[in-house]
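Notes from hallway chat w/ T.B., transcribed later so I don't forget. T.B. wanted the structure written out for a chain they're using in a teaching module, and asked if we could keep both sequence and structure tokens in one place. Agreed to drop them here.
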Amino acid sequence: MAFADEPPAEDQDRAQEAREWAEDRADEAGNWASETGAALENAIVPDRTRLTARALTTTDLEYEGGSVPIRDLRMSTDGEVEAIVVAHGGFLGVFGDEIEVDAVSASVSHDLDDGEIVVEANVTEAEMEAVAEGQRAAMSLELVEERSDTALYYSDLSGAEIHGADGEAIAVIRDLELSADGRAEYAIVRDSGFFNMLGETGRIAFSTLSLEHNGDGWEVHARSITQSDIEQITAEDDAR
């Protein structure tokens, strides 16, 4: 009966080193995937511990007789929320009529403990149906048959590049943090990262932004802010 020769000790050591190297690389890949997944979730899932525009547009507007999903926010250039855009009818808010509910007729409550956001409006289902059919209804409701090209919406700002002092893009708007009275106080921005998704985030005062319509769409400028300022802001926010 023949027996195979035992491999030299040197070969065994090299095999062990190779296994350890592969295990280390696998651990690094697992850590990278975990960190990337967390970063992607942070980029996609709204932060409900703060009253943000993204969190607001992932909830429903409740009113007498029903509720409708909030699609967007119409805003002024100084950050005031002027109207809440909802989807009435359709299937789960898809293919429904867009109706703007005047922000004056709506109230927002935000529970800091559990992040719950409740948006209510003083309108009825009959008024909603009437305006969806093109009839005259409450002054607080307006059917949006076609969005104006020059009207400013939150969706115009979400993901928009911010152009700094030298005109170059220095950050991307991830979200807007709102005050209790419905005004944008801060722009939550992200510095450069993988497809602008995995960079660090920080906050800059909305008042430092200048919103300008160039004829084709909205541009966002922060002419007093540089790339270095954004790096410092995001680093400070990350430290907090």
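Follow-up for T.B.: The chain has a mean pLDDT of 82. Might be a good example for the class.
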